[in-house]
């Protein structure tokens, strides 16, 4: 490996980048890295916001479901207490497609 490097360095036609070119490339790469980090951070924030929104929606739906269950239990109890005064209706059947 060392010999290969020496051979490459010994060839006078080999173009070596100038220090200024290397500095410019390093600057370009740093700028690109900063942009990628910024984009990644924005994506992470957006995903966290989406997850929080979903969590809030799930919580609301859970509370509404509990409320409906409570109302349903009350209605069933009223039906049970009414005895024979209420006729039970069958749910309409859905038409076949």
Based on the model shown, name its key terms.
mainly alpha, 2 helices
Helix and strand arrangement:
Layout: H1 2-10, H2 19-82
Question: How would you describe this structure to a colleague?
Answer:
- The structure is a single chain.
- The chain has helices spanning 2-10, 19-82.
- The chain starts with a helix and ends in a 15-residue tail after the last helix.
- With 97 residues, the chain is mainly α.
- The model has no long low-confidence stretch (mean pLDDT 86).
- The protein is rod-shaped and about 110 Å long.
- The chain is 75% helix and 0% strand.
- It is built from two helices and no strands.
User: Number of DSSP helices?
Assistant: 2
Distance between the termini: 75 Å
The biggest beta sheet reads:
none
The helix content is over 70%
Which descriptor suits the 3D outline?
A: rod-shaped
The rounded Rg comes to: 36 Å
Order of helices and strands: HH
Mean pLDDT across all residues, rounded?
A: 86
**Secondary structure: number of strands:** 0
Gist?
The chain is mainly alpha-helical and 97 residues long. It contains two helices and no strands.
């Amino acid at each position: 490996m060392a010999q290969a490097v020496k051979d490459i360095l010994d060839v006078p036609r080999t173009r070596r980048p100038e220090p200024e070119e290397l500095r410019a490339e390093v600057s370009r790469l740093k700028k690109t890295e900063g942009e990628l980090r910024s984009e990644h951070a924005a994506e992470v924030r957006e995903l966290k916001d989406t997850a929080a929104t979903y969590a809030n929606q799930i919580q609301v739906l859970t509370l509404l479901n509990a409320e409906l269950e409570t109302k349903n239990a009350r209605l069933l109890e009223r039906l049970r207490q009414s005895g024979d005064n209420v006729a039970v209706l069958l749910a309409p059947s859905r038409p076949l497609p």
